[in-house]
Please model this.
Amino acid sequence: QSAEHALRFCEGGLQLANTAANGITILPPGPVQVGANLKQYWEVEANWNNAAIAAVVPVSPNAVAVNAPAMAQQPRCMVEQISGSIIGNTESATDAIANGNQKSRFRITARGVGLDANTVVQLQSYLLM
Model:
């Protein structure tokens, strides 16, 4: 449930153009170099503990039962812009660029951790703006 909550948090922040206020950074298109490998931001474990990359999602005290045990880590989410853009079917590529009708694509990844730090759920969604 915390992963679902984090996914909705980042999706909502992106749709409302309220990312900075919620601590959400829009990451540039990946992959990124990690050692000798190329990985997406969400695939790098260290990124989940970096608040400049993964937004810490607030959990409302009203949403948590009074005697519920604490999660090992607050839910987190990150937003990656996907390279390229989609152009609407109703106009040519040149017209779409001139009219500002190109659509940006984003991958949102959310991570929820249970009572044990080894219990992790990740969810992803794609958003076309």
Summary: The mean pLDDT is 82. The beta strands are 26-27, 32-34, 37-39, 55-56, 76-87, 102-113, 120-128. The longest strand covers residues 76-87.
